[in-house]
Amino acid sequence: MLTGIVTDEQLIKLYTTPGYLVAVDYPKKEVTLHTVDCMLADPISSVGVKPSKARENKTGEFWFSESRDEANSKAEEIAKNKGYTYTICPICNR
Ligand SMILES: [Zn+2]
């Protein structure tokens, strides 16, 4: 099941749940697929995504799914609808 992630806390709680994060960056026009344990998907990391801030500033959106296929489909759909670039994160790709 796809879950919309709107706060950092929500994502932090999912850290130990095997699954995938779709990160949409509006300013960069990019959709990226991560595993939730990727450092770039970790709000605590300085390089990680920040869902709370992105929502506040309307600069992005985030989706979680335990299914890679489902996360991938959502990422492709958003990329297609918005005309964004879709990339699978090279750090956590597996
Ligand atoms: Zn990643």
Bound molecule types: zinc ion
- Principal-axes geometry comes out as globular
Distance between the termini: 20 Å
- Helical content (DSSP H or I, runs of 4+): 25-40%
Description:
The two termini are 20 Å apart. The protein is built from three helices and five strands; from the N terminus they run βαββαβαβ. The mean pLDDT is 97. With 94 residues, it is an alpha+beta fold. Strands 1-4-2-3-5 form a five-stranded mixed beta sheet. Zinc ion is lined by residues 34, 38, 40-41, 89, 91-92. The site of zinc ion has 7 residues, from loops.
Name the descriptors:
binds zinc ion; five-stranded mixed sheet; alpha+beta; 27% strand; 94 residues; globular
Detail the topology: elements first, then pairings:
Blueprint: E1 3-5, H1 8-13, E2 20-25, E3 30-35, H2 51-56, E4 60-65, H3 68-82, E5 85-88
Parallel strand pairs: 3-5
Antiparallel strand pairs: 1-4, 2-3, 2-4
Short description:
With 94 residues, this protein is α+β, with helices and mostly antiparallel strands. It is built from three helices and five strands. Strands 1-4-2-3-5 form a five-stranded mixed β-sheet.
